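Notebook, p. 212. Picked up where the previous page left off. The plan for this session was modest: take the two constructs that came back from the sequencing core last week, fold each one, and keep the raw output in the notebook itself so nobody has to go hunting through shared drives later. Recording the first one now, exactly as returned: residue sequence, then the structure token string.
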Amino acid sequence: IEHHGHLARLARLQALLGDSGRAQSLVAEALSLATPAEYTAQVVAELAGALDDRMQLRLSSARDRLERRARDPRLETVPMRVQADLAAELGMVWLELEDLPAAGRELARCRDLYSRAQVEVSIPMTACMVGNARLDLREGRPSDAEELLLPLAASWERVNREGTGRGEVLFWLARAEAA
């Protein structure tokens, strides 16, 4: 399983670097190595592929692969943090597709799952918190968006000032403050 996890992390990194071909190749390799019993590894690999799809604006592909996993009853066997990551990524895809009700459902789900898993606001929650803040802004609640993003911005400041995720958080925080 550890090798699959390494491949999925590499795929995620390649997606963030914009190397879609390499990202999708790593996802395919991770999925081919994962046995049916290694469902969490499959979900983590699919998440990397969906992130790459979203970054490359292949939104229907991202939605389809995430929806397929979200509807699978085995998802309940996956750690809550991974379930939350899936809901966050799916929420971001729905936001990009302009389906605010679907985005709202998934983004509320990721917040609930992170809360139940007792995950503090931190860098791994970036997609969930940014997605929720973007939804708050779309629905005319800039102070709610700001409240979500301030602790996340502080986490990025402490841990990785140069991270690209920090720029995304600061961008949406500026939008919230300007509203």
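Okay, moving on. Second construct, recorded in the same format:
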Amino acid sequence: LEISGELQFTKDTSAAPVNGWDVRLRVHDTRYAQYALEQAELHIVTKDSTAAIQGDLDTEHGRVGINAFVEGFLPEQMDIRAELQLTHVDLHEFVSPVPDSLSPLTGYVSVRGRDIASELSRQITTVVYLNPFTLGHYQVDTLALRAALNADHFLVDTLTVSGYGMSLDAEGEGELNGNV
């Protein structure tokens, strides 16, 4: 691990240990294992059991812009909203099972999770949108997914994919066999 940069943080007089923080991280020419982070900025502000997170990560394998908001710091009360802007991200470099032919990925991802907890008995709802993006040499106009997980049951109530003048809309539900 090699880190070059600066970290600035302040804490207001709030009695709560997780509230009242303003943290800024700026790094450049940083390396972790085989990953090089050319430049990154991250800004986190916590207040009233919420956290606002903004950042930009430039790597040799693409760029990711982050804008996230977390409400509630306990997993069973947590509501997370995150938006990612992906620019020429080589997925294969970060997730090796992804074929190299499906890179680079360019697009916009919006994710929302509610009531996130370590137990599967809690409800998890996620919405993902990519609109438009390229995946390798394939142009996709829209990819939308909305799904819920509760105990051992899952529901996909929206799956939409369109591109090349074709469109697919689907939904489904099922039971999990204990493996996620």
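Notes on construct two before I forget. The mean pLDDT is 81.
Flagging for discussion at group meeting.
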